[in-house]
Amino acid sequence: MLKCLIYVSVTLLFMVSCGSAAQQQYKSHAVQKGETVYSIAKAYNISEETIYNLNPDSRSELKVNSVLIIPSNSVISSGTNKNNYRDHKVKRKETLYGIAQMYNVSVDDIKKLNKELYSRGLKKGERLLIPAANKTTGKDTELAPGTKHYTVKAKETKFGIARKFGISIAELEDLNPDLGKGLNVGATLVVPEKIVLENAEIDEENFQYYEVNPKEGFYRLKVKFGLSEEEIIALNPYAKDGLKEGMILKLPKEKADITKDDVSEINLENRIKNKKMKTVALMLPFRLMGNPSDSTSNNTDLLKRDPTLRVALDFYSGALMAAEFAKDNGISVTIDVYDTEKSESKVAAIVSSGKFKNADAVIGPLLQKNVERASDLLKDEKIPVFSPLSNREMAMNDNLFQTLPTDAILQKTMIRYIKQHSAGKNIIIISDAKHTQQRDMIIAAIPSAKTVTPRGGGYVQMSDITAAATEGSENWVLLESKNPVLISSAVNAAAAMPANYKTRLFTLDKNDAFEWHEVSSRRLAKLNFTFPSVNKNISEVDKNPFMISYKNKYGVLPNRYAIRGFDVTYDVLLRLASDNNIYDAVYPESETTYIENKFRYEPSESRGYHNEAAYILKYNDELKFDIVE
């Protein structure tokens, strides 16, 4: 009698716990003496594996009066194993998404029947209970439940889309069996319905993307990458609930950067040892063939119409002055000048003429596509080509030197400075939706940084900044945007903050929006506005030998293009004279400084060389620029 009461109590408890959903899908069975899993499965016309999956403890022992969960009659129908469920043995590298798509069911449907999968991943060789396929109608009948179609956007990659939907690459490939190595813009993919991260773009220059291994936790990643749990979550918010196998993590790129303390300034004028004749080819777009007339009026009109010609002439004047300075230092120089006519085909014709066989270096052309073309044609001869004016990302070759620091290098320089001086500072980031990459880079370097999101109209108020600021401490505000409205409102708000909030303004990119008429230079000066720059500004009253010589020769002071022509050409000539060739004269831990520009070439991660030397400037009270670094 006592056993009967216990059995009734257990059965009632089970029924109350399961509720109405269980009544519809499952029923209970109290094990009788002499029953086995096989006999019970046969009695209910189901498989033994169905019982094992719904009752994991029954694999080891089947106790009398223990209660088993059994599929109800309402869900038993024809099909594999003569019921509504299928038995699936997990194979190597299979994923839940792949299995769900195979049987046209959702991942959640599988987990409901295999509850251990809520807390762990799949194991090779284990057997799963799979529900019958869902019958759907309409245009999405091909899709498994819980998935949808997604159109690939520009710059999106498999890593980015996997991150966006919180799945692994393997799961993405399972959902899309025909997926190749790359993605085409406009292609349609099958993805989970839920987005876990909005931005699917990949920034491979500043970050690496890592797929979490089985049983890998934050501690292992700290050992592997030297990153704390806080730093990882700062870049991957969805990791706050823990790491999962196959999760794609965005991590700072592993690179042993040369620090500012490692860099020393050198004067190559003191290291001249190779005084053999130096031949430099100067390729500039003069377009002389298209304008044969040399009349003063025609030349004046041409200069007004063609800004590229004005830049070329100014750069040329500075380069000639550099050759004169080199000769004064005992360096024999021949400058061969070629008119590229702004034409890629003309560049190819000049190079193919064989005139560069004895060239020690080529400076130019000015236009990026023409520089890339010249570099490509001269790479087999290993003749170094110096790009004088382009700071965009280029198609690099082993012989290509980019003399202007790229925007990425300027950003890296500014972040390094802020990180090195961030102790005791309260870092605040104000950025818009188009500058999430810059925000992520800052957070990766300084996880404690706070963020301020612009209001609906794309502006901020002083209260937005003070809410993130710390009274009595130095508040360093990093403003990342090209929107004049946001920049002017942030500058005005930061400048109006009470004196007990010590506020200084920074940016990784001093773009044209900071020159907008609504942005007060006085307020920027009050905030010690600090930014990275490829060059410093020399004063007109500076009695520099170059400035004096240029004024005496041409009757005017040099503009920035003439100074650029001098700095680039003089640095190339001095490097040629300081070593056997240009490649031997790449000194990654040494900086050369001239009139407005400085140079420190480092091999790029792919090929070629980038100038890593940049300035950090700030506004002073006289509305001029001081060199911070």
From TrEMBL:
PROSITE patterns from the UniProt entry: LYSM, PROKAR_LIPOPROTEIN
Record-linked SUPFAM superfamilies: LysM domain, Periplasmic binding protein-like I
SMART domains linked to this entry: LysM
Signal sequence coordinates: 1-22
Keywords from the named record: Signal
Keyword Signal in record: yes
Matches recorded under CDD domains: LysM
Residue ranges occupied by any LysM domain in the UniProt entry: 27-70, 86-130, 148-191
Family: Belongs to the leucine-binding protein family.
The name this protein goes by in its record: LysM peptidoglycan-binding domain-containing protein
Organism listed in the record: Aequorivita flava
